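Model it.
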Amino acid sequence: MMSARPVVLASILSVTAVLFAGGCASDKHTMTSAQPGQVSVCTKCYDEIKKVRGSYHTKTGYSGDRVIKTHRCDECKSDMSIYEQGGVLKVRCASCAPEGVDCDRCVPRAAK
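Modeled.
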């Protein structure tokens, strides 16, 4: 005879998955202000940074600087480039981060 435990466990997992999947169905996330050491960038620049960080892999044995991606941002109306410098992934945007900053220090700009 089959035990009821696997059925109950499967039901609980299914309900939990549905609840979590519905939690991020909208793009209405609450944005917070940048903390000390962080840089606030526009939403579109931040999305491009997330895309590159999700697929970025350092080249083993490569020690030079290289541009990974360039992007013309419609939100801040400037060019943005994501590049590797000394093995660190960085971003430079004339509007959001003109001095060039580490990508892991970037946070989305708080909604006004």
